[in-house]
Amino acid sequence: MKSTLFRNARIIDPSQKLDTSADILIDKGIIKKIGKDIEAPNNTQVYDLQGAVVAPGFIDMHVHLREPGYEHKATIASELTAAAAGGFVGVACMPNTNPAIDDGSIVRYIKEQAAKAMNGMIDVYPIAAVTKNREGRQITEMAELSDAGVVGFSDDGNPVENTQIMRIALEYAKMFNKPIIQHAEDKALSHGGVMNEGFVSTTLGLPGIPTIAEAVMIQRDIMLTVYSGGKYHVAHLSTQAGLHLIREAKESGLPVTCEVTPHHFTLTDEEVRSFDTNTKMHPPLRSQEDVDAMKEGLRDGTIDVIATDHAPHSYDEKEVEYLYAPFGIVGLETAIGLSVTELVKPGILTISQMIEKFTVNPRRVMDLPQVIIKEGEKACFTIFKPEEEWTVDIQKFKSKSKNSPFHGRKLTGKPVGVVNNNEVMMN
Ligand SMILES: [Zn+2]
């Protein structure tokens, strides 16, 4: 890459408590200079950012890339392009591929594919399965998978149901300082449910998933975390009851963390009245009380991370009766807009706090090095305009799938570019 000069950047780096206006000169992927009115050397690509925010590169720690095995939904190449368009320099990918990420050779395959896509611009951090083929019976070779470079373990899509297996998994993963990422669901309680159990499910006559299905599993896991001393992370938290348990666990100093998706702090189960299958996800959209709790959890720091649970499905798969549609929506390209609109604009989070939940905290949970915006450091940025208004158009998504309930929604806050691994991509 030739050198790049960003003029009029608003640099916000929470790790340095930095919020300042400056130009940034990058050469060979390294930040060469930060300052006022930097002169552009010969052969420099210059961008006037007009006050757009430059933040340490965002990571989405909950993404389903679908490859290998489900390339009709998405490929590593297609979804990394979507990640970049959405303002992410890195994604952690879940192991519910076919074959599942339960062996070092699959980890290496994914890393090789990722290195080929977009010149290796987007970092991919595989999360390995806790159990072989995510079947809940036999623990994977965690040492081998750690050596291959996984950042955590999860059977996502499925919970780790067997208590003894969860206990051993926490104990083993602790040796490698990796979290167990739990899809917290008691399947006996959620059995057959397609939406939140409550007034709306009763009205619509659809089988419900009670909030207790999430909370019971979190409660059990916290007890196991106390016992084993392992690191425990709750994926896509959706309930007030679950939030309370995590808050208490954190107050007593346990290594418990959690994430929330933009749809769980934006939409309620009222949306299901449309019977739009893009309102069907797991965990389901909950009540207004739960949505309010998610916002409060973000505000008070109980919720560490915003992650999308990006789950591409083809048009045909979602174009069926509500009962039979697969769970999940795409999220990479609407995450920043929904977060600014729902959290920053109403004053729940400052921009700096939002940035923490997209970069500082997911990097901490997965034990990845932090990104610092400083001369001499690697240039790894997410660039976005917090004031810009735009309307979601699924046809413009770079993702191979378009399954989003946010088509036509007006948002404030737009990703405009990413810089990483000696590459620059401006939308
Ligand atoms: Zn899940």
How would you explain this protein's 3D organization?
With 427 residues, this protein is of the alpha/beta class. It folds into two domains: 101 residues, Urease, subunit C, domain 1; 308 residues, TIM Barrel (Alpha-Beta Barrel), CATH 3.20.20.140. The protein contains 13 helices and 17 strands. The strands form four sheets. Strands 1, 2, 3, 4, 5, 15, 16 and 17 form an eight-stranded mixed sheet that branches. A four-stranded parallel sheet has the order 9-12-13-14. Helix 2 runs parallel beside helix 3, helix 4 packs across helix 7 and helix 8 packs parallel to helix 10. The longest helix is centred in the middle third of the chain and has 17 residues. The two termini are 17 Å apart. 54% of the residues are buried. The model has no long low-confidence stretch (mean pLDDT 97). The structure holds zinc ion (ZN).
